Every structure is written in C-alpha cells, then in structure tokens.
Amino acid sequence: MRALYFSILLFIQIGMSQITFTSIPQNMQIYPRNPQTDSAKIVIEGTVTSKGVVSDKITVKTYRDNNLFSTLSEDLAYTGQTAAFKLTPQIKAELAHYKIEVYTGSGTYETLEKTVDSIAAGDAFIIQGQSNAEARKFDGSANENQNSFIRVYGSGDPGGSSQKWFVADGDGTMVTNGSAGQWGIRMARQILDNQKIPVALFNGAHGAKTIQFFARNDNDTLDQETNYGRLLKRVQEAGLQNHIRALIWHQGESNADENFKATTAEYKTMWTTLHQDWLIDYPSIEKTYIFQIRNGCYASIENILQVKEALRQLALETTDVEIMSTSAYMQNNNCHFPYEVGYKHFGDNIYRLLNRDLYGAETENDIEPPMVLRVERTGNREITLVMDNADDSYTWDTEAEKELSFVGASVQVTSVTVEGRLIKLGFSGDVEGVTSITFRGHQGTPAPMVTNANGIGSVHFNEFPVIDPVAVEHDLKSTLKPITVHHNGGNFRFVFTQGQRFRMARIVTVNGEVVKDFENIEDSEELEWNARSKSTGVYYLQVGDKTKHLLLPVVVY
User: Fold this and answer.
1) Closest to 314 (Cα-Cα) out of 459, 184, 447, 212
2) Which residues contact 487 (CB under 8 A, 6 or more apart)?
3) What 8-state DSSP symbol labels residue 434?
4) What are the pLDDT digits (tens) for 490-542?
5) Helix (H) or strand (E) segment spanning residue 166
6) Residue 422 burial (CB < 10 Å; 0-12/13-18/19+)?
7) Which one, 126, 176, 183, 299, has the greatest CB density within 10 A?
8) Helices in 282-391 by DSSP H: which ranges?
C-alpha cells in the first residue's frame, strides 16, 4: 500500500512541472518543404521549470494519420530549477496529417504537456492585387476545390487578421478567415492533385485600390496602416517569410481610373519598386506572375491601354516575371469574372506555368499566352505579326481585326492569314506610313486577338512599332529579357540586367549578315561595340545560346 501511494504522489509532482515553449507549431500549421529532401523540420523548443519532483527528460512523439511515426527524447540538464530543451522532429511533405505530442517525465512516468494536430509540410504562395486578385464569388462557387491540405493563415482583413490557420475558402471576401480567392484555390488544388503536397496561401488583395496602395513604408515595413505591412506580418507570423515560392499579381484597373491614371512609364516605375521590395522581404521568391488586366471596371480604354502595355513590357523586361492574359474569358459585370468560364481558367493557366517553372515539368507548347514578338511591314499592303512561340498553335479570333488601330496611316484590314507563328494582315491600301499598331480589345465578352491550343488568349499591346522585315532566325523563340543599351557618339554599351549571362553574342544586319562576333562572353556583364565606321541604319544585337535567342534593335545614325 505504501508503494502505491508513493507512485501516485510522484506522478502528481511530475505533472506539476511547468513547461514554456518558445517554438511550437500551431494546429493546422503548414511548414515549408525542403525541395531537396521533400520534408520539413519542426522545432520544439523551450524550458522546463521544476515544481516538486524534477522531470529528467522531455519526449516528442510524432503521429502520421494517428499512427506513431517517430519518437525523440532529450535528457533535461537543469541550471537551478530550469532546464532548456530543443527537439527537431521531421515530417514528410505529403498529403498526411501529422500530430505532435510533447511529454515530460521521470523514469517510466510521463505527463502529456502539449498536443498539436493536423500539421503538414508543403509550398507557400502569395496572391496580391485588387478585386480580381481577391477573386471572391461573383457567379458560381470555387469550393469544389476545397481540401484540408489547402490552408490560409488568417485573412486580408484591414482591421486585423486572426492569428490562426484555416482551411482555404475560395468564395469568401478579403475579411473571410481563410480566404484564398477563386482562382487562388483552383491553382492550389492543381498543385495538390499533381504534386501531392499541401499548399499555404496568403491573399493580400484589396479591391478598388491603386498600385500606390500596395507600396511599402520603407521606414516601417511592418506598418499595420499599410496593406504591405499587414501582409508581411501575417507571413512572418506563419513562419514562411523566407519560404514563399512565387507571388501572383492581378492589379491595374484602378490605375486606369481618370482620377488615378498612370502612364505606361509611371506604372512600370511603381511596379518595379514594389517588385524589388518583395524580393527583399520575401527573398525565396523564384518567380513572379502577373495577369494582364482587361478593359472595363469603369475606366476608359485609352487609360486601360496604358496599364496593359506596362504589364506587357514588365514581363518582357524583367527576368523572373511571367505574364498571363485574361483576354479569352467572359466578364460577368464588365470588371470581374465568373468561376466556370473565368477564374477557373485563371487558376489552371497559372498552374501550368508553376508546374514548368517550379516543379520541373517538361516544357509544353501552348501554356504561355500568345505574345507578339515583332511587327514587320512585309509588303505594300501587308503587315505581319510575328508571334513569340514558334511551336504553338494560333487561331485568329473572328473579327478581331476590328479591334486593331494604326498610327501613321488610315488603313483597314481586309484579310487575315495564319501561317504557323506568322499572322499576316492584308490591307485595303498602302501601309508604308504605318508606324505602330494597337490591339484595343473590348469588355464583357472574350476579347483575344488569337488563342492557342489551350484556349489562352493573346496579350494585348499598345502602339507596337512596325519595322522592316528582320531576316534573322524567325524560328527561334525569344524568351531572354532585354538589355540596357547606352549610346555615346557611335559607341554602344550593352549592360546585361539582373546578372543575366549569355553564351553567344553578335551584331547582325537585318539580312542576317554578322558584322561583329563577340567571343568568350560567358562571364561578361556588358559588351561594347564601336559603330562609328558602320553605315547608318538598323542592326540587331543577337544574344542567347543554341536554342534561345534575343534580337535587340540597335539604330546607328
């Protein structure tokens, strides 16, 4: 009887130990996946303070779908009445719920101190912009994609976010706990289904706001009066600031509003600053994806064109930025999109790019939006649009020629012929005076110029310059980003942006004749060309490797 009494007393006294955690998961927390090991390390850290009988060990038991997965124990070494501990169990990045139980104990006795349920390991993404990034339910539900392994920390509520994890909700507004947006949850579901990993989303969107609204306060990056600071705080609290894999941006309609309109150059400047701030505060970002906006949202077409052109140019000029069009889909209120024939496609289209860029899928045709690479005057009454991806399939949209406008001459398109990547426009009159071409688009119904085999519509463009034909390797895909050109009295200096390196570089004429071949440039950051002895006219800097080339016009005068 005395032995039984002693055992009961010992158990009670052990249970009186006080444990303080400095690091412990939250219920439903998603930890960042290590792509090399396909796992995540969980840090369980803190102190044990003895009250009565001293606990001599701490144990962490990890369960996978309620089956014991691993057990880690650590002897406690006290200084006075306090002992520090740190254990780091690992979990796999998979569609499984992990549970953590923390015990203190002495001898064969244990006391359960803490239980954390439904943690997982996966990848994290940020969605940002205005109402088409918020992508709440306008017509049709996206929650067919809902899954316990797609999760959101808090919400985008400007009044304050809940400090908890939630199962993602595709239909809610920015103040809804767990709001992911309709195309956001669709994108995440595609990742989950195909990569078989959990996904963490942070949607920071706020409807009807200009790009200035999303800017960082450089004096206080966590300023809770700013959208930027509120989003950054959420990501920090979730432990994922250094583990965001990509950011997807859908914004610009408000900068086409007459009261806040931005020129193409102004929008590019503001967005570039914002992008640089993201890369500082979320240093793990591998790619940024931007949607080109559509006409509508109560803004004039002229103002919308300025922003659309800025987004097109940003994708071309920034190495880690890719663009996705919205032109082939129906708007249900001349501003937003229904789920089935709108936002659902947005999620699918972005996923294809993520699959290629982040998950190592083989490059597929027709996953990028059709983009005009060059516009060439190929006859007295013909202009040819050279599309970017030579191997994609292009279909001209019925009567899209009505959306085209021209600078320099009053002409009318009378025929359209699609030959591979070449879109040949026939005209009623001489096109010699045409200097640029614009695809204006329209609102409401789909407004692509061409679509590809996946039904992705073309990126719109504003005042694209018309040039004489370039007889240089039309079949090569131009995917490399532009180079900064400095010109001083016939001397050209070409500076490679963002650490870009090339294996080949040369100066060619419009007929393909090589006039300068640069050698041993693999480690070069810039090139120089003295063109003082050359004839005036257009030349091209051609850079790249065996499969990818960029042609950059250089005018000698």
Assistant:
1) 459
2) 493
3) -
4) 778 888 766 667 788 888 876 667 899 898 888 888 889 988 888 776 777 88
5) strand 165-167
6) middle
7) 183
8) 301-317, 344-357
